[in-house]
């Protein structure tokens, strides 16, 4: 069996990581402390 990611899967993984670093990571500690879910960023 081949468990290597396809080029498309690698691109999706990178895109999701980049999005999270730019839009979700800033302020994550404060949101966690206040139990806030960033609904607008997730949609």
Strand segment count: 0
Shape, per Cα inertia axes:
elongated
- The topology string of helices and strands comes to HHH
What gyration radius follows from the Cα positions, in whole Å? 14 Å
Largest sheet: none
Instruction: Indicate the low-confidence ranges by residue numbers.
Output: none
- Helix content, binned percent: 55-70%
Strand-residue fraction?
A: under 5%
Assembly state here? single chain
Structural class: mainly alpha
Count the DSSP helices.
3
Protein name: Acyl-CoA dehydrogenase/oxidase N-terminal domain-containing protein
GO molecular function: flavin adenine dinucleotide binding; oxidoreductase activity, acting on the CH-CH group of donors
InterPro entries: AcylCoA_DH/ox_N_sf
Helix-strand blueprint:
Blueprint lengths: L6 H18 L3 H6 L5 H4 L1
What does this entry look like structurally?
This protein has 43 residues and is mostly helical. The protein has one domain (7-42). The protein is 65% helix and 0% strand. The chain contains three helices and no strands. 0% of the residues are buried. The model has no long low-confidence stretch (mean pLDDT 92). GO terms for molecular function: flavin adenine dinucleotide binding; oxidoreductase activity, acting on the CH-CH group of donors. InterPro entries: AcylCoA_DH/ox_N_sf (IPR037069). This is Acyl-CoA dehydrogenase/oxidase N-terminal domain-containing protein.
């Amino acid at each position: 069996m081949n468990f290597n990611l396809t080029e498309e899967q690698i691109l999706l993984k990178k895109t999701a990581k980049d999005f999270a670093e730019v839009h979700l990571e800033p302020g994550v500690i404060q949101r966690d402390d206040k139990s806030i879910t960033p609904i607008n960023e997730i949609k």
